[in-house]
Amino acid sequence: MRKIINWVLAAILICGSTLSTFALPKVHVIATGGTIAGTSSGSGYDAGQVSIEDILAAVPELNDYAELDYEQFCNIGSQDMDEHIWLLLAKRINQVLLDDSYDAVVVTHGTDTMEETAYFLNLTTHSPKPIVLVGSMRPSDSPEADGPKNLVLAVKTAVDPESTGKEVMCCLGEKIFEAGSVFKNDSHAIDAYAAITPDYYMPHDDNTGFDISKIESLPQVGIIYGYGGCSTLPLQAFMEADFDGVVLAGVGGGNFYAPVQELAEQAVAKGMKIVRSTRCPYGGVYTEGGEVDDLQLGFIAAGCLNPQKARILLMLALTETNDTDRIREYFNQAITTELSRIRCAQSQMNAFKTLHNGEILIQAGDKTYNISGIEQRKGY
């Protein structure tokens, strides 16, 4: 009898150990609204109507991949997303991911400004645990609702070990994008997102980004869209309102109608930060090889960042410094990348360029980097 009891106890211990081994990852879902929480209304729909509890209940498959809990952070269309909500959301995510019981965060979000929220979170959250934003292009009660499939992919991505240490990710059209490259390129299609090739890659972790833990509001930065014969009135209004910075969404390589550029030079002289971006989705704006001498005029080139992401980076940079050269560095490199190590070596005169079989090489410490393509594009 004693042997039988021992065998039973051993079996219980083994089963308990096995069950704990196969415990599902724990994911916290933060709901902010958007079309994924929308319902049909007349000939259109209203965003941010359905609770996250009902959204998750409609997709029972999610329970196969993760243990979920959730909170209704807000319930708005993402056209109403703003800096105040971004700050609160980033602080909340940082708080959640400090809890060892959570493995990842999924944020339901409207698609209109998801790229901005993702980029902001990538710069202000400090954990290698995955963060995935997910939305839809059809409301929850549509016969073509795409939210459930996107939500399943978002959760599967969040619990995938390969997602640890990546940038904040966005899920739409059953595809995954990263914060630094994603942008919305279609106002109606199910697969409305596309991606650029970013200048650098910056995963969110303990050693990257900006500390917003004690920040309650952000510097004021606006965007001005360029066009032929562009009026100076928007820039005049920003100057009169004492905005801290303006992003010029210029034509082509960040160019602007002459009267606007002249006024921008005056704005710089009065202390405003001017960043040149472009209304073109691809190509970016760089100091070298263009028509504008940023260094002489005091402007800042946005690199690969579109105007809305450039605005976010400028706002956050201004929380740390008002020095134009330092702000340029934020636009030129991530905090932790191979390129930043190259630049560090260059600044300390420990690096040198060599030309080998037509390729430009940089020796930094015990490593050699081929920067031929970067040299041509960014003028190192």
Can you offer a commentary on this structure?
The chain has 380 residues and is of the alpha/beta class. The chain has twelve helices and 17 strands. The strands form five sheets. Strands 4-1-5-6-7-8 form a six-stranded mixed beta sheet, sandwiched between helices. Strands 11-12-13-14 form a four-stranded parallel beta sheet, sandwiched between helices. A three-stranded antiparallel beta sheet has the order 15-16-17. Strand 13, helix 8 and strand 14 form a beta-alpha-beta unit. The longest helix is centred in the first third of the chain and has 20 residues. It is globular, with a radius of gyration of 24 Å. The termini are far apart. The C terminus is likely disordered.
